[in-house]
Amino acid sequence: MQIPSKKILISTLLIALFSMAMLPVLAQQKVPSVDDAKAPSLAFYQGKPFYEAIRKFQQEDSIRMPASKSILLIGSSSFTYWKDVATYFPGYRIVNRGFGGSSLPDLIRYQDYIIYPYDPKQILIYCGENDFAAADTVTVAMVVNRFKQLFWDIRVRLPRVPISYISMKPSPSRAALLPKFKEANQQIKDFLATQKATSYIDVYQAMLQSDGRPIGEIFTSDSLHMNPKGYLIWQKQIRNHLKKTN
């Protein structure tokens, strides 16, 4: 058996001593975490869908930043048009960051700008209708997986913040898509039932007549968006799921 030379032994000993000396220094260094990651400037998304809507939110925040630990609403136009949402829930601080026409990939794309800066106490999500309306090729599995991606993105960054999903509503103008809405709603409900600090808010059933058809009088003339009667139904369904913010 070949015996290592004296030079090799000395080199090995020096490397070991150096490594031991560096251990305290390395221990003091901060291990990078998810929170250390900085979002790119919003300008990175210039030209992408809804860039201007997100930029408007940033401009509003630069003038007056909403209070932290509020209830954050993110999603599509059913939130966007609910401009007086705070009056429906007195005693709760509400921050509405819905932007009309958005789908789940848009929420994922802009999550660094519409979620985390607000340090929310609770997050309410309404989205999915526009995903299905975008193309006939969009399947239930695709939309549910998009929701799960958004959910896990949030959960990694905000592990203790409650997340509530408001079911896709039975919009009369999208009657052909209602079977997909119902199936996706059910799968999202089943998924959330396996996760902590979550809730599923069913507005779909509450917006139907006894014969199973959507209540026409709660929608505006486009048969897609809601009038105040529709939002009163939402108020009733959502209220018991909200976390106190004061």
From TrEMBL:
Residues 1-27 form the signal peptide. It comes from the Bacteria. Keywords: Signal. Coiled coil: none annotated. SUPFAM superfamilies: SGNH hydrolase. Gene3D superfamilies: SGNH hydrolase. This is GDSL-type esterase/lipase family protein.
